Fold these 2 entries.
Entry 1:
Amino acid sequence: AQYVYRFGGGVSDGGAGDRNLLGGKGANLAEMAGIGLPVPPGFTITTEMCTRYYDEGETFPDSVRVEVAAGIAHIEGVTGKRFGDAADPLLVSVRSGARVSMPGMMDTVLNLGLNDETVVGLAAKAGDERFAWDSYRRFIQMYSDVVLGLDHGAFEEALEIAKEDRGYTLDTEMSADDWKGLVAEYKAVVEREWNKPFPQDVHDQLWGATAAVFGSWHSERARVYRRLNHISGDWGTAVNVQAMVFGNMGDTSATGVAFTRDPSTGDNAHYGEFLINAQGEDVVAGIRTPQYLTRAARETAGAKAASMEEAMPETFAELAKVFRLLEDHYRDMQDIEFTVERGKLWMLQTRTGKRTAKAALKIAVDMASEGLIAEEEAVARVDPAALDQLLHPTLDPDAQRDVLTKGLPASPGAASGAAVFDSDTAERRANDGEAVILVRIETSPEDIHGMHAARGILTARGGMTSHAAVVARGMGRPCVSGAGMLSIDMKARVMRIGSREIAEGETVTIDGATGEVMAGAVPTVQPELAGDFGTLMVWADKVRRLRIRANAETPADCRTARDFGAEGVGLCRTEHMFFDAARITAVRQMILAADEKGRRAALDKLLPEQRADFTEIFEVMAGLPVTIRLLDPPLHEFLPHEEDEFAEVAAAAGVDVETLKRRAAELHEFNPMLGHRGCRLGVTYPEIYEMQARAIFEAACDVAAKSGAAVVPEVMIPLVATKRELELMKAVVDKAAEAVFAEKDRRLDYLVGTMIELPRAALKAGEIADAAAFFSFGTNDLTQTTLGVSRDDAGRFLTTYVDKGIYATDPFVSIDVEGVGELIEIAATRGRATRPGIKLGICGEHGGDPASIRFCEGLGLDYVSASPYRVPIARLAAAQAAL
Ligand code: ADP
Ligand code: MG
Ligand code: MG
């Protein structure tokens, strides 16, 4: 194998495509040299050599010694200097460089090739003694640290004392003689700490540094970094040996780092810092305050020190040209390192620059508008998950934060408001115009009104898929869940976090993106939904095949969904409409009724309310499809649980407390998730579904009569396991439809379909499709029932399961493609066999998850339905899945 690849001086043995072999740094140095940029000549020892070096007990084969000698000869040929030559010595850097950048993890040695003799030659040749001795002392310190493993503290201390003795504050005040004196001290430190003199043989230096760079691959910090970032330990690092260029040769020399565009805003402006008369890491090390690249940036910051544009106008113009060239070549924003040696610009590194979500969006859109990349490429480049950050208000990054504790970042966005500890109080205070944060130990369906009224939700218990988290995401409310340090004293109306106490009504702030909980108000900044975001969405929609709908049950949610581009409602959960304070009494009377007659009397009161709900939703959705799921939860969810509520509820419902308690006890279930719910309610009490169907068709007819817009209601029966269940329920719905059409003297198209959320339904989908015009995969329940895992209880063990690799990701966040996915595939195939063209979609949390959306695209489903705030994410993810 070839282990050494040269670059510079008109030669490039490798290129950007050789990242795995040459590491990112080496591959890009070769690439830059290849396109004619000024790159100091050098060579790369491959990552394969690193692996072999470890396989062979940390030794170098003879063949590589020969190749390295040829590499050195290459550099000597280009520079005209000789390695170890006393008169005109070649100095090199020995730089690490893995496949992926591991910032700050790996080692680099600069100025290698200096010794007591070559330093004299360097001084004479450069005509600058001070520069030569400055370089030598830098080399001794770096080599001692990286290669010899000596503590750098001793060197720093010696430099501090030297400066103090002379009354200096800055390194730049040190004279040639001062540096010379310090070099003598440094060598003494090495002898004392290492028991041997500092290595004078330049070849020993080179091999020592090469071994040390390979060695840094297995350093503790590199291992930890790799584990956290899922980088394989087998890859190894490459070593780059490169002729030194000197930014520390006086006032016409400099070193700097830059981005071709602003990595935090995405602005197409030169962005970076540089330092005159400095070397390598001085810019990032913070020894001196770096100067701005451009005059504009300097003026904005109100800084005095001249910018590069002002101090070195010609070199800066050259650098600006290089920026252009690099972007044209790589077609992406680059992060670069450069050095200026006596007015001459040298490029030392380039790589694709890291950026914020905001910058990623702007850069992708700008580059496509500039013609640098295609629109599809722009669509492909933006991470859909990152959009989430952009769709919600965020905390002002410059504001101060008094952090109380940290929970899980359950729903993005930030909010401030008065802490309140129950939902009724939240609603009352919000109605009075106050911003409130609902703080609960955990939330339940009874908290919906409080969650709606609150600006944000904070819970002490519950994971990323707890009730609070799921509902908050659906509503677009920021939420921090599982803040375990938090306790609430309902008597004293205070919450406690460690030693801190917050009384009800005091202001708190939550950051749903980080999970932070803060005392007091922290200012927020609003998202920008037009502009670049709008443009990218238009491009995404051009390539997208899947339709995107929203899970929405209120007119407000439907409006949000439409604003975000939803093409229909994929899941309207009717039970949320029953929790409304004005209706729950009628709901309870219905539950408490002794017979069908009593139930019908109560349902008659609910009918106009339900009809009004649907009317508003149909109006907002103006002709788009709306899937309405008939009542799903077990009835006891609507009854009180607390002792002190019974009397009040009994009085309102017109029964005595004993009757109420008896009925509540009758309805109690050991496992409500698998209990009397879904279509089982409709099978036992058909009048409930009949009322709901009637409300739907009356509303649809009314809206059609008023606006002429053809609403197509899609009536969905939940928790079906058998064809017979669906047939019975469909008959109820059809009968209601016929009755309404006769009364209103108007016919409408409508569909009756089912959720597929039980494994049996998926397996028997071929039969069920006889009665179903559509399937909507209820992936939340389908995951629970397929895995046999209750999502309300999964928090206790699911993280361990993911850590141990049992599930690759949380199956409630991203579809378990192997298991649940196979059931969906079976159901889709069998359903289509019975009813070609059967409409297929998914609803549930997975509808907004990019990986799950990719899976749905693969199956050719018709649509996914996501919570309103995730609609843009789903649009982008669906576009990427189609590319
Ligand atoms: P890192 O990966 O930690 O950035 P580098 O190998 O890029 O490490 O080098 C560290 C610093 O030294 C950078 O600022 C780089 O520009 C500088 N440097 C590396 N090689 C040379 C060289 N041949 N001449 C001048 N400066 C160099
Ligand atoms: Mg670097
Ligand atoms: Mg369900």
Entry 2:
Amino acid sequence: MKALVKQKTEAGIWMDEVPFPSIGHNDVLIKIVKTAICGTDIHIYNWDAWAEKTIPVPMAIGHEFVGIVTEIGSEVRGLKEGDRVSAEGHITCGHCRNCRAGKRHLCRNTIGVGVNRPGCFAEYISVPASNVFRVPASIEDDIAAILDPFGNAAHTALSFDLVGEDVLITGAGPIGIMAVAIARHVGARFVVITDVNDYRLALARQMGASAAINVTQASIVDTERELGMKEGFDVGLEMSGNIQAFRDMLQVMNYGGKVAILGIPTGEVSLDLTRIILKGLVLKGIYGREMFETWYKMTSMLQSHLDITPVITHRFSVDDFQQAFDVMRSGMSGKVILDWQ
Ligand code: NAD
Ligand code: ZN
């Protein structure tokens, strides 16, 4: 079958033939309908230091998708051929303490689809049935293909109570942009987002941001004054991976503020710990999505009129994958969809 394969230990991605996946007793086979490109796929494309030490070559990559179940393993219950599904890309061990306690997102033995094992940029993928999520009919394919990153946004944004709170989001990448929409949807007061990219800040405004600031041109403190905020932000969502953005966030948090950290910095970082202590800040690291609480929350929000469609800015046939990767790498995009049909 056809797949987008990381074939060589250099920048790039290649369309190639790969073996058809086999399924075990507890797996399902899924025919891919649409996929989306993640920042992780760009790290793999660029073949940075993380990719070099993580990704086996050659391997089909990708983990954001929607597809149709075409075969189920003999032990699988609750799924059938023809079901339209996406899947949780973190495959967990099932036997560690957290897995057994129902906290699969904290599994110490997590394996990543399209990172540690073959991914969804292919005509078919095999995944454990316990990772599969049936998509409600009311959710269109393009949105169903981005439930994974939407889930990162939901997991982070719903970590703390946002009702009536002033929220600062650093980083208007696709995930930050979706977090704006979620914060609005669940009843935050002011939702301020920062980035250094005007294209993405414009998308964030479309999603309902009270203010979308280019930090190379304007300051968060000035924006607070303009909005009439007096005491700083109640909740911070770090979604840039940029340490200066995080430091700036810590400056403008209110005493007792709560900060959820999704963005992954490139290396070790130094922070003003005294400020965190004296302000009594609560910091929480976020990894992946809660299985499957986050998935239920996000589909329910979509079914109660949360609209995240503006985050999808480009759609390509898979034959034009190079163009799709180029636009994603340019930074002048939100989510980019690849159609496999
Ligand atoms: P992205 O790289 O598309 O977005 C990051 C944004 O931060 C970019 O738009 C960039 O311009 C912006 N930025 C750079 N410097 C900034 C600064 N000084 N101030 C404000 N913004 C700045 O990434 P994404 O796909 O939206 O993901 C967001 C972050 O979350 C990334 O760091 C990614 O690696 C991380 N991530 C973590 C998990 C997890 O499970 N923890 C999952 C997915 C993504
Ligand atoms: Zn586990």
